[in-house]
Design a protein that fits this description.
six-stranded mixed sheet, globular, 383 residues, alpha/beta, three-stranded mixed sheet, 2 domains, Rossmann fold, Histidine-containing Protein, Chain: A
Length: 383
């Protein structure tokens, strides 16, 4: 009888911990909005059980603040990414057009072909952070060095490449490197960005910021200070600024609640035991995020690659001393010397390795599905 009662209580606890937002939660969120001066902001339940932002906002900064405040009350997974249909603020239509246009079938793009210009690259690997309670990524630096060495072996000029590892990869240093890259890129060149590090939790559009060595956590608002991480808008602006040059962006990042579990006050802690849920929550990039980065310009050749998909981590391999994604992707790049073919070949290898090896370690099924957007549909970038 005692065992049966314990089992029932256990099920009740689980049901409570995974229950969706309540009316009381919505009241609390609206009160937080009012306290922060967001008088015309609100939330409402969506068909999927998650809350969605509604109302009017001055700018995207207000939307991001409201989104984060809602996450504080009910947790990351219970707040849906915003869409232009349910929030109103300057610039909304531009975002809507960009996303919808990116989802349409790409038309052929006139390409200058391999060898028509030079390759310029910024390669960043961060596994140790100024805030010591952010979980270490032992192999992020190795990933960056592997990718950098590949480019070097393919005769990309050293003076055209910047490698930032660990304490070198501050926000100021990354900003300076991106600015330098923009100033050097010519129309026929190729710009390559590679990042291996943590991602910040999904923002209002479901995108993640890139966590850097000196990224600071705002404990009061439970987010990483936007001025200290590389934001989605900054990546998008970089792509637009260097147009019509070809762009390749590789993001070996994901958000994992466990990465920030030791930062006091960062994760949600409510009567629903959402702290436990948050600590186990993780997610990679989805096609919507990559399409957001891609933007509206269909004449610019763009390759956007992410290591893992929604609800997934980007896993590291202790024996390889690399992330599974970077190790196998670079291996296939060396074999094929052509980016799209290398991605297509590496993807099932990564999926199989993670499913077999990590699932055994975790004693539960684990998946990792690399994501990619190619504009045009068939990319011809070779090194």
């Amino acid at each position: 009888m005692k065992k049966f009662l314990a089992l029932i209580l256990g099920f009740a606890w689980v049901a409570c911990s995974i229950a969706g937002p309540t009316v009381d939660d919505i009241v609390r969120i609206r009160a937080r909005f009012t306290a922060e001066g967001l008088q015309q902001a609100s939330v409402e339940p969506g068909l999927d059980g998650r809350l969605r932002l509604v109302g009017q906002y001055k700018d995207r900064a207000q939307v991001q603040l409201a989104f984060n405040l809602a996450q504080q009350v009910v947790g990351v997974r219970w707040v849906a990414p915003t869409t232009p249909e349910n929030v109103r603020y300057p610039g909304t239509e531009g975002i809507k057009t960009g996303i919808l246009d990116a989802l349409r079938k790409s038309r052929p793009v006139k390409s200058e072909g391999t060898g028509s210009g030079e390759v310029h690259a910024l390669v960043v690997g961060v596994g140790h952070y100024e805030m010591r309670n952010i979980r270490v990524l032992p192999n992020a630096g190795n990933d960056a060095k592997m990718f950098y060495n590949y480019l070097s072996d393919k005769s990309v000029k050293r003076e055209n490449m910047t490698l930032l590892l660990e304490e070198q990869a501050t926000k100021a240093q990354v900003d300076a490197a991106l600015s330098s890259l923009k100033s050097r890129i010519k129309p026929n060149d190729t710009a390559v960005l590679y990042f291996s590090t943590h991602g910040n939790k999904p923002n209002d559009l479901g995108n993640m910021a890139v966590v850097l060595h000196d990224s600071k956590i705002d404990v009061k608002r439970r987010w990483i200070d936007p001025s200290t991480a590389l934001q989605d808008d900054e990546i998008k602006r970089f792509i637009e600024t260097v147009s019509p040059a070809r762009v390749m962006i590789v993001l070996d990042i994901c958000y994992s609640g466990a990465a920030f579990a030791k930062v006091p006050g960062f994760l949600v802690a409510t009567s629903k035991d959402l702290f436990v849920e948050e600590e186990t929550y993780s997610t990679g990039m989805d096609q919507r995020s990559l399409n957001y980065f891609a933007g509206q310009n269909r004449e610019q050749e763009k390759i956007l690659i992410a290591a893992s998909g929604p609800g997934e981590k980007s896993w590291e391999s202790a024996p390889l001393k690399q992330s599974y994604f970077t190790y196998y992707f670079v291996q296939e790049l060396r074999r094929r010397n052509e980016v799209q073919g290398a991605f297509d070949a590496a993807k099932p290898i990564i999926q199989s390795a993670v499913n077999k090896e990590v699932s055994a370690q975790e004693n539960s099924p684990v998946t990792q599905t690399p994501q990619a957007t190619f504009i045009p549909d068939v990319a011809n970038l070779k090194f």
